[in-house]
Amino acid sequence: DRDYAAALARLAPLTASAPAQNEFDDEVQEEVQQIVPGVKASQDAYRLLGDSFYQQGDMDRALQALNQAGKCEDPAAYIRLGSVLVAKKRWKQAREAFLRSIALQPTAEAWSGTAYAEYRSEELSMCYEALCEANLLDNERSDVWALLTLVHLRMGNVDQADHSFRQCLSLAAECEELLLEVSAEYARRSSASQERRPAFAEAAARRALALRESGQGHSALA
How many helices (H) and strands (E) does the chain have? Predict the structure, then answer.
């Protein structure tokens, strides 16, 4: 919410200058409590530190801070932990973090994170199940439809993949990484008898390029 975003903004100078270390000492915790009014517990201070580091792209220190925060009853905290672990490509640990969030409160975001971790682990069936759960809670997430496209293509369900991809595009997809993978997967499966497949590959690449210029995106259109 707005107050939490303001708290992270106040923390940015501290986390930008914090030295690399295995653990954060009491002084850092006290500084957080002084900078952000209302933060009393050390667990909350470390969680704020973790979020601030995450926003700055420092995943190593984000993970350190979140690990120091320890266990909690906040489902959002486990989603953040899972996101950090995804960024570090620790798929199994990420899945466990997302599932902890789901155990506290099922959300489309947590199920989507679980699905992403399962997909990267090549667990397509479990990925599909997680995507179905995410869609039950929110069927307007473009990342879920993009992942569904990839899963169906990998499993040979081309008609379902086409439907999922159309849904993805209709939601003004903002998942550049997944769109590029969708483009590559369609391109691999294209043939002279399947004219719509190259068109889908191009559409995915163009949408990805609209989000961010990249060599991979231009290569897909070459």
Answer: 13, 0
